[in-house]
From TrEMBL:
This is Probable periplasmic serine endoprotease DegP-like. Might be efficient in the degradation of transiently denatured and unfolded proteins which accumulate in the periplasm following stress conditions. It catalyses: Acts on substrates that are at least partially unfolded. The cleavage site P1 residue is normally between a pair of hydrophobic residues, such as Val-|-Val. Residues 261-340, 367-426 form the PDZ domain. It comes from Simiduia agarivorans (strain DSM 21679 / JCM 13881 / BCRC 17597 / SA1).
Amino acid sequence: MHFKGLLLSILVLCAFAVPSQARSLPDFTQLIEETSPAVVKINTLEHAKRNSQRQMPPQNIPEIFRHLFEMPEQRQREQRSMGSGFIVSTDGYILTNHHVIDGADEIAVRLTDHREFEASVVGTDSRSDLALLKVDAKGLPALKFADSDKLKVGEWVLAIGSPFGLDFTASAGIVSAIGRSIPTERNENYVPFIQTDVAINPGNSGGPLFNLDGLVVGINSQIYTRSGGSIGLSFAIPANVARDVIRQLKEKGRVDRGWLGVAIQEVDRNLAQSFGLSKPAGALIQQIEPGSPADNSGLKVGDVILKFDGKAIERSGDLPHVVGLLPPGSKVKAEVMRAGKRKTVSVTVGKLPVGDEPHVASGPDASQGDRLGLVVEALDDRQKQAWRLDGGVLVTQVAPDSPAAAAGIRPGDVIAQLGFEPVTDVDTYQQLQAELPEDTLLPIRFYRDGRPAYRSFMIKK
């Protein structure tokens, strides 16, 4: 009887425990209803041309006849892709990933109510993998950002997007980690990613990651996968990074980042001991670029940066996250371990060089452009050397509905030829564009990410 009574008591407790546990799980229905109207599906179209040649083995053909067996063809090829995004202001600004719209000639944005708009690119920032779009509409539903610095591991989060083209799909999970360092192929590391176990798949890119208050804490950007689909490792760009990128693209048409000019490495247990640290921490300076902000401030090779601008540098990857978010010209303190002693160094943060990938974005209003609808500036020596160019001009703004926009020219492109004349510098460009004939289809040659391309344009009367 005693055993039966105990068993009955356990069963009664379990019966009450299950509903109690169920009640503690979040209900996402209201959150989805309130936020999904501001989530969009993005479809892109890229036009490309390719040359194909059908040839017989040249060694079997007499030299005089070889040209007869070379038949070049031009084939038009269209590449379509898709992703997600969300509206950040009621007047039509939309945020998505840079890689979602990179190379696109046409961008279509579709809302949950089936309205569809053609979007123009306000600006892109490949280093954060963010892009700001604009559609011609007013009174749109818009989402608000949370303070992502307050996000904690274990919090419930929810994503809405279009995985594999399945429109406006919701998936939920928890924050698995914060401040993840994921260097790019260029070994750049300016985003402290949020890691989650939310089911994110191709097509979710650019979509919002919500907290339980319906605020955007991140922008879904990457997944780690061996199968092509979700395995529970997804990464989102923090809302605070996105907020800063949006502000800069709107205000000045580009994203400036802080820069020190150092090469750093992780501090392991043995290094920590040799530098007089009680535990592995900080960013060890391996190399300092001559004339860089670090060099001018008095930082030295062998210094271990433990704090920068008051923020602890627990791992080497934390340093570019902190420095990159600082406005160039900021004067901050760096706490370092040097030769076994703690030292404070005053540092004036510099501006991260554009390097060989000038993603200078256009502002929301580029109507002040020239006859092509462009605003251009001179190339610096670093850009010329990186792209092996003798001349050209850098496109900084493209006016909507302009001849250049119709040709697919984008901020960051380098124009090397107008019509049939080479562009050597800004003066040459201005002279050539002023003399261009109207109602005539002309070629324009430009470089994008170091690769040359041709398009055609026409200036109409």
